[in-house]
Design goal:
Largest sheet: 5 strands, parallel
Helix content: 40-55%
Order of helices and strands: HHHHEHHHEHEHEHE
Radius of gyration: 21 Å
Distance between the termini: 58 Å
Strand order of the largest sheet: 3-2-1-4-5
Length: 256
Amino acid sequence: MGVVLLLCLFLFAGSVELSQGISHEIHLLGPRHGSGGRHVPGLSCLSWRLGVETHNIIEWSTLPQACESYVGHYMLGHQYRKDSAVVVYEAISHAEGLKLAGDGKDIWVFDVDETSLSNLPYFAKHGFGAEALNVTRADIWVDEGKAPAQPESLKLYKKLVSLGIKVVFITGRSEAKRNVTTENLHNAGFHTWEKLILRGSSDTGTAVVYKSNARKKLEKSGYRIVGNIGDQWSDILGTNVGNRTFKLPNPVYYVS
C-alpha cells in the first residue's frame, strides 16, 4: 500500500511539472549525481558559492578552476538574475515603507561595479574569475565605458528616484575614472544622482575603511543613509552603513 501511494504521489508531481511547462532536463546548476551515486564534477561548486555569499569563504583571489563552468552558467543563466531580483524586491519593500523627511537628505548608497554596472561582458572572456585579474586589460575594458546596467539594480534605482530618495554612488574606481564612469552610468540608464564618490589618492586602506569614511562624511554633511546596496561584503560592512543593507550575489571576485 505504501509503495502504491508513493508511486501515485510521484506520478502526480510529474503531471504538475508537465502542466506548468517544467522541463525534466537536469538544470545546469542543479546538484547532479550519476545513477549509481557517483560524484559529478562541479557539484561542490554550489557549496563554494554559498560559502562566498555567506562570507564564510573570504580573502580569495580566484575562484576554483573546476568551478569556472559552473559560475559561468550561474552568471549567464536565469539563477543569477532571480537571486538579484529577490534582493531588489526586499530593497524596494524597505524603501516603500520608509517615512521620508522630505528635505532632500534621505539617500541610498549604491556601489558601481557588479551592483550598478555589470562587467560580465569582460569576465565572460576571462574565465568568470578563474583567471587572475589582469589590471591592464580590466582598465582598458572600463575605459571603453560599455558596461551594461545590472538590470535589477536599475529597477531599484528607478523606484528610489520615483519615491524621492536620492542616490549616491560610492565606488572603488579611482578619481581618474570619473568621466568615463559618469558617461557609462548615464548611458546605462542612471540619469541622475546626488553624488558620485570615487577613490582619491589620499583614500588609503581597505575598501571597508574607504567606504566607511565616505559614508561617515555623508552623514556629517547631514545626509541620512536609508539604504545601502552592493555586491561585496566590503560595500556594506564597517561603520555608517545606513538603516539597512542589501547584498547582491557575486561569485566572480572578492574585494576586502
